[in-house]
Design goal:
mainly alpha
Length: about 190
């Protein structure tokens, strides 16, 4: 395959992943929808980082963050959406999902010679852990005590609640779904 066809394939893949991200972000805007669905909006970012590379994963993460920022601005679900209007909270941490997931995936698959499914599971879990830690960290850096006051608890209690309610669920969900998605992609690619 020549370079132009390869670039076209990458661009097409990224466009499909972006479209899926937009759909998932809109689905999470439906009132009373399960909070665990939030992980779905970053599955395309994880898959992009694993299939195309770290740079493309970071771009997809930035796009996913920009879409969540737009949703927070134009379709807020709760008073907490106010915190995500700042791109330091909604966009910057999401870029690092691709960096972490892609790096761990390549380390495990290429350096440790583990199967792609194992690398996808661990890379997905680490990508979502990165998202949780960086978003919570940026919430505190940007909004400080306002965020803690909105949660109605102390800082460490707030961190614990956010990690336990979102972080663990997102890590487990990504660890289960990413090997499936990676296998589907590799079979399709063949």
């Amino acid at each position: 395959m020549n370079k132009r066809q390869s670039d076209t394939g990458k661009l097409t893949f990224m466009a499909v992943m972006l479209a899926i991200t937009i759909v998932f972000v809109m689905v999470t805007a439906i009132p009373n929808f399960s909070i665990s669905m939030a992980v779905a909006m970053f599955l395309p970012t994880l898959l992009t980082a694993m299939v195309l590379g770290i740079k493309e994963g970071m771009i997809m993460g930035a796009l996913a963050g920009a879409i969540t920022l737009a949703r927070a601005l134009f379709m807020p679900l709760s008073p907490f959406d106010y915190f995500f209007i700042n791109p330091l909270v909604s966009v910057l941490p999401r870029m690092f999902i691709g960096l972490a997931a892609g790096s761990v995936f390549r380390l495990i698959k290429n350096t440790m010679k583990a199967p792609g499914t194992v690398a996808a599971a661990v890379g997905g879990a680490i990508g979502m852990l990165t998202n949780t830690i960086l978003v919570i960290g940026m919430l505190f850096v940007v909004h400080g005590q306002n965020m803690v006051d909105a949660m109605g608890a102390g800082f460490f209690a707030t961190l614990g609640v956010l990690f336990a309610s979102n972080g663990l669920i997102e890590m487990i969900t990504a660890a289960v779904l990413m090997p499936i998605l990676y296998n589907v992609y590799t079979r399709y690619k063949k």
